[in-house]
Design brief:
24% strand, alpha/beta, 2 domains, TIM Barrel, 8-stranded parallel beta sheet, 9-stranded mixed beta sheet, Lyase, Ornithine Decarboxylase, Chain A, domain 1
């Protein structure tokens, strides 16, 4: 089986749906992110996409030692791999989360574990946990530059929280954390650059407040999949970038014009029924298989069938309008997820495909659970 450069030997031997990762494409993406960043020192790689020690080891072998994550299980996986730095980019608010954070820091004292804060509640909870355990935690001010999800609002609020963080027992203010998710899926680079420039301006405002109060703000993290490279013009000693989905990429990210990552993870599925009167086929690529968090038509794209469009998805069914494409019941297909991160968690492991199309092993999704 070969579809648009994706080779797979004896696909009928693999029950569907199955998650496939092409290791040569993963290696290409690792090389590409380092090429774009110019130095491994500019990169804090996110672990949320692959959730696998096996993929992590490929990154570590390439010299990537600093990582960001969203869950404590991801942080524990990173610590077990003996990385140098872990940034938990999610509010550690719940008492059980703070207990696990303390336990992680105590178990791995040589690893720099850091967190984000954006409210007095974050500061109070983390301070209580750190002081009680005799630890100190480096924290970044999570700055909302336009996504309106988490983060302090730019201006007076952001400056006040940063000063409070620096004055809070058990915490050490490091700098600013910016995830600008509002830049996603905007193909116009100039439009994204304008949004990034605004984010940079907000970040500089916090730095100015910090300087007036004699507080350091020398380590700052910025950007996501669609913007990270647009921050690289900032001082290399002060701003590092934090791309998310790059290691696997996906069909939505593949529409960005200026980055050369490859869609390394796809789902093997099968056409299980058809409705010629509706010009549709039904696959086994349901919402329990492929990126259900995206708008319907963007949840996946069939490799090699660009006109086919997903029109309906239930738990175990994915219905596609053919729009001139030809597919028959029994055909095997490859789906490029619209969001790789929410597809990975649907599977306990990925089958690894080598450059010759052979199944060469598997990547276990060690951090699939929280």
């Amino acid at each position: 089986m070969e579809i648009d450069g994706y080779l797979l030997d004896d696909p009928e031997a693999i029950d569907t749906p199955a998650f496939l990762v092409y290791e040569d494409m993963v290696q290409h993406n690792i090389g590409e992110v380092l090429r774009v960043c110019g130095s491994v020192d500019r990169l804090v790689a996110h672990a949320k996409t692959h959730k696998s020690t096996d993929v992590l080891n490929l990154q570590i072998a390439a010299g990537i030692r600093s990582y960001k994550c969203a869950t404590l299980r991801e942080a524990e996986m990173l610590a077990d791999a003996n990385v140098d730095e872990i940034v938990i980019a999610y509010p550690m608010l719940h008492p059980r989360k703070r207990e696990r954070l303390v336990s992680l820091m105590q178990k791995f004292p040589k690893i720099e574990v850091k967190a984000i804060v954006s409210t007095p509640d974050h500061l109070a909870g983390l301070s209580e946990s750190m002081v009680a355990s005799g630890l100190e935690l480096g924290v970044y001010l999570d700055l909302d530059t336009g996504m309106r999800r988490t983060g302090a609002q730019p201006g007076a609020e952001a400056g006040e929280i940063y000063v409070q963080a620096a004055q809070t027992p058990g915490l050490r203010a490091l700098g600013v954390h910016v995830f600008d998710g509002h830049t996603l899926y905007k193909p116009d680079e100039a439009e994204r650059q304008a949004l990034v420039d605004t984010s940079i301006g907000y970040m500089h405002e916090v730095w100015e407040v910090a300087e007036r109060h004699g507080i350091a703000a020398d380590d700052n993290l910025a950007g996501g999949s669609w913007s990270f490279h647009l921050y690289l013009g900032e001082d290399a000693n002060k701003v590092r970038v934090t791309p998310g989905t790059w290691v696997y990429w996906d069909s939505r990210n593949a529409t960005i014009p200026e980055l050369d990552f490859k869609v390394a993870a796809v789902v093997l599925g099968q056409v299980i029924d058809s409705d010629p009167g509706m010009d549709t086929v039904t696959t086994d690529l349901g919402s329990k298989t492929c990126s259900p968090d995206q708008p319907m038509k963007h949840r996946f794209k069939l490799v090699g069938y660009p006109a086919a469009e997903l029109t309906a998805q239930s738990e175990e069914h994915g219905v596609l309008r053919l729009n001139g494409e030809t597919l028959a019941v029994g055909d095997l297909v490859l789906a490029a997820p619209g969001h790789a991160c929410t597809t990975t968690v649907k599977f306990p492991y990925a089958l690894v495909v080598d450059s010759g199309g052979q199944i060469a092993g598997r990547y276990d999704h060690d951090a699939r659970d929280r």
